[in-house]
Amino acid sequence: MIKHTIIMPSATTTREDPWIDSIRSYCGQKAISPRLEFEAAAIYEYPEHLRPWLEALPKLPGVYQFHGDSDTMPLYIGKSVNLRSRVLSHLRTPEEAAMLRQSRRITWQRTAGELGALLLEARLIKEQQPLFNKRLRRNKQLCAWLLADDRPQIVYAREVDFSHQQHLYGLFANRRAALQMLQSLADEQRLCYGLLGLEPLSRGRACFRSALGRCAGACCGKESVEAHRERLLAQMSRLQLVCWPWAGPVALEERGPDMTQYHVIHNWLWLGAVESLDQAAELTRLPAGFDQDGYKILCKPLLSGDYPLHPLG
Fold first, then answer.
1. Does pTM top 0.90 for this prediction?
2. Domains along the chain?
3. What residue stretch is flagged as signal peptide (predicted)?
C-alpha cells in the first residue's frame, strides 16, 4: 500500500504558475466559463500552504487525510477513486472552511480501486477518530433479530457469532432500534404485537389491535399462525444476514489501473491488503468480534462474482 506526503517548498509560490492550468484541466475546458471561473477562484483563494499537496495529488484511487498541528490525529479522512478530483471538491463549500483553516498538510495512500479505499477509510477512521469525521466505533450494543423459534428474539453480537449464526435479520445499533423496526413492520403489515412479543397476549383472546382492525387476527384464529409467520419472514427476508460461506479466509483480488491488491477477509472481517498471494497467506490471524462495517462493505463484492477469489486454507 503506497503512502505519500509532500515536503513544503522553500520558495514562495506566485499566482502566475501552472495552478490555473490544473484548474482548467480539472474543469475539463480550455477556457473557464463565468460560473466555473468563480468556482476556480474559490479554490484558488484557499490557503496557499495547501497548494503543493493539491498539485501533487494523483487522479487515482486511494484514501486521503487532512492534517492539522497534531501528528497523531488527522482532521479528516476520506476516500475516492480519483483522489485529486475528490480533494478539490472539498475546497468549494463554506462549511469546510473551518477544517481548511486548521489544515497544515495533506497525505494520501493509494489503493487498487474503490473497494480497497472503502475498507482502508473505515479502518483509519476507527483507529484515528478524526475531528471532522463521523465517529466509527465498535458497537457493544449491536444486535439482530433471531427468527429460529415461534417468537422473534433479540440477540447481541457480543454473545452470538453473527458470522455463522443462521436465521439472523437486520443489524441494529441497539435494542430500541430493533424494536422500533419490528413495530413499524407490524403496523404496515397488520402483524400481531402479541405474537411478535411486543406486548403481552392473553391465551385464547384477541389482542386490542385486532379489534381496531390493525392486526389480521392471528392471535384469535382469523389468520393461522403459520400464515402470520410466513408474512413476517417474507417482509424480513431482505434484512437476512448471510453466514460466512467459506471454511476459512479468502483473498479477494482487486485490479487497478496501475496496481493489484489482495484483500484478506475472514468472517466478513477485512484483515488487510497485500500485493501477492504469498503475503496473503501470512495475513490470516483473526481478531475476535463481528465487524458491522466490514460486513456491509464486503458482502456484495464477495458474493457478486465480480472479483477473483482465492481460498487461503
1. no
2. 3-128 (3.40.1440.10), 143-239 (no CATH), 250-311 (no CATH)
3. none
